[in-house]
């Protein structure tokens, strides 16, 4: 399933990213703010675990998100800003990284780097800001399933209707949390109206 967030703040932050004059620092900061809202939604039904802590008036038991059972995986390099936002919040979570690039001629994705360990019994939060054709996200999900991932949730800033449809056709059990679904893909398979190349804009790539 997928959920597109409708909150006015999300709309405002996403539209801030569309401003092509935004400097990389502000671009990354805005992505992190959006990611925190996406994470809040993703963990809305998360089961909590109990933990004893020492408070100012003795040992007490409280409920917490079981961070040690969560793996945060980002698709390089555009997903790095999102990744930082998640692990800043879930400090006990593990990390993984996948390098996936798009062939600009065939528009197909190519996996070139895999730094994800065994995910058996883990909940995986997969962060990738842009879902255009859905190819990169599908490839990432395939890798995670090969590593025995349990529940998989994706956090995405922008998506095309075509990309969402492809991902959910191939992996209908995946839970996609999306800030904004844009209008369509153009002939070059870029999201319209979109915001350009998120990785280039985040890190000022020449």
Structure report:
With 206 residues, the protein is of the alpha/beta class. The protein has one domain (2-203): Rossmann fold, CATH 3.40.50.2020. The chain is built from six helices and twelve strands. It has helices spanning 8-17, 24-42, 80-89, 135-146, 161-170, 198-203; strands spanning 2-4, 49-55, 58-64, 70-76, 94-102, 109-115, 123-127, 130-131, 152-159, 175-181, 184-185, 191-192. α1 runs antiparallel to α2. The chain starts with a strand and ends with a helix.
CATH topology: Rossmann fold
Largest sheet features: 8 strands, mixed
**CATH C-level:** Alpha Beta
**Which band does the percent of strand residues land in?**
25-35%
Q: How many structural units, i.e. domains? A: 1
